[in-house]
Amino acid sequence: MNGGSMVVWLATLWLYAGGAVAAVFLLFGIDRVDGNARGAYLFRPLLAPGVLLLWPLVLWRWWTLEAVSGTSDDAAYDRGRYQAVRAGHARVWSVLAVLVPAVLIGALLMRQPVPDSKGAAVRLDAPAPKQ
Amino acid sequence: MSGQNQTPFFIGYLPIPHGLRLFLVVVSGLLIGGFAALALAIGTAQGNPGTGDFQWGWGPQEVTGRLEIRPYPLLHVTTGSKHIPAGRTLLLSGVGKKGVRPRVAKLDGRLVRLKGFALKRGEIDALQVGDNNKAIVALDGKAPAVKVEPLGRWRLKGEICDGKCLAGAMRPGRGLSHRACANLCLIGGVPPVFVSSAPVDGNDFFVMGDSKGNPLPPEILHHVSVYVSLEGTVERRGNIMVFKVDLSSLKVL
Amino acid sequence: MSVKYSPVQWTQSKLFYDAIALALVVAYVLIYLRVAPTFTGGVPSADGAIVRARAFGTCAFLLLTVILCIGPLARFDRRFLPLLYNRRHLGVITCLVALTHAAYVLNWYFNFSSTPRFEALLTSNTSYGQILGFPFEAFGILALLALLVLAVSSHDFWLSFLTAPVWKLLHYAIYPAYGFLVAHIALGALQSETNATFAVVTGCSVVLVCRLHAAAAIHETRLARTATVSASQEDAWFAVGKLTDFEEGRAQIRLLDTGERVAVFLHEGHLAAIGNACAHQNGPLGEGRILDGCLTCPWHGFQYRLSDGCSPAPFTEKVPTYNLRIDGEVVLVDARMNPLGTKVDPVPLPLVTQGAGA
Fold this sequence. Notes:
The complex is a heterotrimer. Chain B is α+β, with helices and mostly antiparallel strands. Chain B has four helices and twelve strands. Chain B has helices at 18-44, 101-104, 163-169, 179-187; strands at 53-54, 61-68, 74-79, 89-93, 111-121, 124-129, 136-138, 148-162, 192-200, 203-210, 227-237, 240-252. The longest helix of chain B has 27 residues, at 18-44. In chain C, the strands form three sheets. In chain C, strands 1, 3, 4, 5, 9 and 12 form a six-stranded mixed beta sheet that branches. In chain C, strands 2-11-10 form a three-stranded antiparallel beta sheet, with no helix packed on it. A three-stranded antiparallel beta sheet of chain C has the order 6-7-8, with no helix packed on it. In chain C, helix 2 runs antiparallel to helix 4 (87-106), helix 2 packs across helix 9 (174-187) and helix 2 packs parallel to helix 11. Strand 1 (121-125) of chain A pairs antiparallel with strand 8 (148-162) of chain B.
């Protein structure tokens, strides 16, 4: 098995696992962790692709929510909702605002011009005389 | 932002405030107009992929000639068709991204009849040999020898491509954005070709082989679609050029 | 949300928004595929699949450019906020356009071979050690994966389930996705295209997006520097400002050294302090307005009572409240957030100051 088929195989496995998690979560789990989902079914197929791709994240949140539900950690969990990540924007763009133009300019500088036809075909030796 | 305190306050589930409507109409109009203008600018700026194409209009072609498998399978036509006259040399490939070597391995130097669809780009002729058993028929009878004319040792600058896409199976069938496709063709056994920036004896297109005239090693895949200079001997076989390259001479330009 | 979930909560604004977003895509693709060829005067065109891949690919790049400009524009000019309101739908549309591009490429360049298509995509070019001829498809795959993750997690359920900070962090993937897309274009299409038009368009996009985001980042960093307050050693009370700094119906926002922001509103002669991050998407509540007695988020219109930080029934969202007091001319806030739902009576302004304004 080469690297490429290995990646395809792992991706397929990931999606199968996601399918299993999606089935269990969307049929049973979602009602336990989100009151607004109880009795609402139309929107669930819309969540399936998300669970398919992000199932480890889903399992982690599901586990967290089950663990804090009704305990004193509930408040701490809710506090986490207000830790806005706005400050990350400046950090990300201090890198990207330099890197992205550099990639574009670098790639354009590396670009090969079509070789000039002059000197593109040079005879180094005549054919061997016996032929 | 105290200067903006008078800006109408937009709430998604309420009607859009009057003061914002004109602004939003103008922004929407600019966006749609901008996209339309860019579509036209980018759409009309696409490069010319050349004239190569499948010759579906000719219908299936049946040609007879001498088959050669080194460096890559070629057919020197002795009995042609309406569109492919005798004397032409055809680059051979299978249907899709594969070559015909496994199917013709035992027919080197034999007289064969091939059936398939033609590809043509300028002076480049290729035949996509059909998949069925009857597409390749070994004939009895002597295959006439093909004239081989050595043209000496050359240094050429240009690009390595796959012969099938270049001949017109894909348009454009060269360049870096086509590279993965070209590699896939070469992995499948389609003959690699060299497109030189200047002609040798009137030809700027060469079937490639290693210095001994055998197929190229897989390392060549790292240099496909990049402008390189290569040294090797050039010979004319029938009406096709063969460039037997010395891979150690390869330089990226 | 505190009503039952539905696939999409349509509003008139969202319908307009989506109609315009779709009009952008339809206009672009139709003009690219149908109108542009009539201007090229008989020059042979590339394969249909390749032209369509180009049309959808360039369209997705331009849409992503627009998406990335909305945030900083809305920060500098509030009139752009309606464009931010339904940005998620624009993201989903962009993802679908990018998927169409990928499908054309996969079913053309990577088709017709004995190697399965996905495997062919990953194995046909492995020159990762060189710049010229680098497998630029890999950057495209990364960008597409990021767009996919964003699109599939765009429903409000995900915001509530993951919490806004985690969701926001996940959706930060849009930034590297843009970088990957530029690399994908620069090492792919721009290497083989002989006409400079698309290189110029790409360059303009990069300048615009990087310029706007750098400006927003600098603006935000400066604001944070001037507005940051640290709680003193003995107690957590800190000064927000003078009474005269406050304007009716508006807030003063301060960044605490805990990383949280607090918004102190003056409303009908009373001061109230509330967390600045909306429970929905962490939108800046302090930049909102007070409507029908409720603070309304400028992003999606979520509402909260200033007195207890709770959304009016039937909604159940809550944001924290903070205690505050007035010491002479100075307004002081306790940096320790109250437990959610804690009622804090708004503090009336001393009569002398009322109406004095800044």
